Amino acid sequence: MKNCSFFMLLATVLNWILWKSFVLSKVIVDVHETPYECDDTLPLPAADFSGLEFELDEDDVMNFSGTVNVTEDYEAPIGMNLHTEHLERGEWKTGIMSRVVRDFCPVILNRFEAWYPITKTLQQTECPYRKGHIERFDHLKLGTFGVAVPHHLLGEWKVYFEITAKRNGQTVKECIMRRADLIDG
Questions:
Q1: How close are the terminal C-alpha atoms of the chain, in Å?
Q2: Which one of 6, 92, 135, 175 is CB 3.0 to 4.6 Å from 85, fit for a cystine?
Q3: Dist CA 86 CA 34 (whole Å)
């Protein structure tokens, strides 16, 4: 009986330790306003994202408003590579999130994809995207995510968005980076 009680106590303590390693409250995502060039030699995308403003509403839900202006043609296929870095003990480490899509055009309205809450609101949902095209957003809520977040994932993040497309018959590769903070709210 003593062994049974000991194992019950041990199981309870281990369970408490495991759950304490996760953030059980709301996690706030604070996206920095300023877009940055990526760390390598890739140019910024031929789309002007400077008109976007990110803000938390009264319920601490991230939303954004503004415009994205396409400044050069984007012909299909349009590929994307989304990847992250996390600041750990003063050093940027490869983050846990990464996604490569070879051609975004056929899946732009796939309701099972993470981007669907944004792309379903686009005025244009088919490729190609031509120079001069403008997309407008008005307090588009990115929502909340009902997942437990380990404490070690809180902190500063870099989110890289690389785009590969055809332009004037040539393949071009571009990149933009946004910084964000995950904060225990």
A1: 43
A2: 92
A3: 18
